[in-house]
Amino acid sequence: MKRKLDKNGEPVEAPPKTKSKAAQPSQPAQSEEPSQPEKQEPATEPSFAELGLDPRLVQAVAKQSFEKPTLVQRKAIPLALQGQDVLCKAKTGSGKTAAYVLPVLSSILRRKVADPTQFTAALVLVPTRELADQVFKAIEQFSAFSAKDIHAAKLTENLSDAVQRSLLANVPDIVVATPARAWHSVSSAALSLDRLQHLVLDEADLVLSYGYDEDMENIARSLPKGVQTIMMSATLSPELDTLKGIFCRNPTVLDLKEEFGAEDEKLTQFYVKCSEEDKWLISYLIFKLQLIKGPCLIFVADIDRSYRLKLFFEQFSIRSCVLNSELPINTRIKIIEEFNRGIYDIIIASDEKSEIFGDEAAEEEKGKQSKKPSKNNQGDNSEQPKKKRKHSKDEEYGVSRGIDFKNVAAVVNFDMPTSASSYTHRIGRTARAGRAGIALSFVIPKDQHGKHKATTIKSTEKDEKVLAKIMRQQAKLNRTLEPYNFNKSQMEAFRYRMNDALRAVTKVAIREARTRELRQELLRSETLKRYFEENPTELAHLRHDGELGRTTRHQPHLKHVPDYLLPKDGKKALAQDGGVGFVPFKKMDGKDRRHHRKGKGGKGRSFKVGGRKDPLKTFKVRRKAK
What we know:
The chain is of the alpha/beta class. The protein folds into 2 domains: 52-256, P-loop containing nucleotide triphosphate hydrolases (Rossmann fold, 3-Layer(aba) Sandwich); 261-363 and 392-574, Rossmann fold, CATH 3.40.50.300. Helix content is 38%, strand content 12%. The strands form 4 sheets. The protein has a 7-stranded parallel beta sheet, with helices on both faces. Strands 10-11-9-12-13-8-14 form a 7-stranded parallel beta sheet, with helices on both faces. Residues 46-74 form the DEAD-box RNA helicase Q domain. Its EC number is 3.6.4.13.
């Protein structure tokens, strides 16, 4: 038997076995001992099998390669299995969907052992169609080994009443829907809530913000007594207090945030203060020279902006995809799936719902409502329907919250959000599941706003105010935003290429690209839907990152970056410490680049053909002699 030796090589006597456990905490010299119990605590955390779930669900969870429950799952699942109302606040990507789907499925399976009667036992309400599709797929995955006993239906697509009734004719156990769809089904007697046992509100703080107030009140009046309510949210907002008063009896509130300290450290946040013109230049450099690698989400303010940026990238052969509220629901879902599978790396998303977050936006909305004309004023009322018909947008669209984008390496706020809360939701798309992530935001100083009229938008006027709010909010979370500096001298070599590409993206090109993609996606979504369901391998032909700029003036010389433009030290020399000055539009070295060289007398040189003067400039009309 080998004996332990000390630092001097002398043998050390082993302590008695009966006193070893008691002696460990009383020896301050052994610094490693007190930290061992803390490291061993995760081993004592319950597994999915120990949470009291049905064995078939545990088997499905194992198939999904879930190693152990997250914090929200460990806390919420036992409470939900006991039948308690739960109000849970947890970060995006923390596993909230499984935290309510698993206990609801387990309760239904347990009930069916004693009472096999078929009725709708659970209703899951979500604010967006994309999130409804995500929840429905999660239900299918977790019920893979109990498919005979669990039947779910999704009521979010624009289906006729006849098709909707056929979906509900089989009396599904679980219904996933937006509040508007759910109430339409209840009011038309297609969906019965008489024996409902579970009501789930996912992203509950968004439900009222998306304009479902009246639908929620109608649903609440249709619920039987004793329904268990589970509300999941990323924030504790005043909207939750309203919903809590309508649906919950005495909910257990779970404010879970301490688990994510390690993940927050892996999120690096940068901001760039620059002119509107430099914003396009820096974006071109970042993605063409691959200064940011991996899947990336680019947020812009509106739909036109997303197509302008996509057509701009196409000039340099940078592949990207547009995601907005005008596209059909099937197309949007397919885009997200293909992005998660790694088919393309850049999504340009128009975050049209960002203004609904924050106190400032709420005050502005109240001000608008107070200024609304009375019903007796027919002149003003006649103008409002015209504004609503201007764009056929999907009111149930939302991209900054709820949707499960996987493995996002970077989030770029090409246009700043209108509130600090919306910024938090946007950057929550990256640095998830222990991975590192980058958040980069472009900020237009107030003195630079409106100087590049071709690409200026109104919302950028308040960028600096929003940035100040964001920095204060992130400071409370012990996070900082650092300036991302570029080398001005190295950037200037690329400016003329950027201007050429930007001038080629005209308003006409944007309008035609927007119309063409909408027409193509409608055709693909409706006509070819069944064909691609029967032939899934043909989905490769539905690439959503195809070129849209057919009418845009393409310039082949912009496709490749010549070596003489790159700095001697390589691509990394573009980004360095120090500030970046603002570059005036049109001018370089104090001279206007578009002016012709002047000859004698201040007149421009005449255009010559073959060494002679232009005959059109010297042609004289001779009068006929009378």
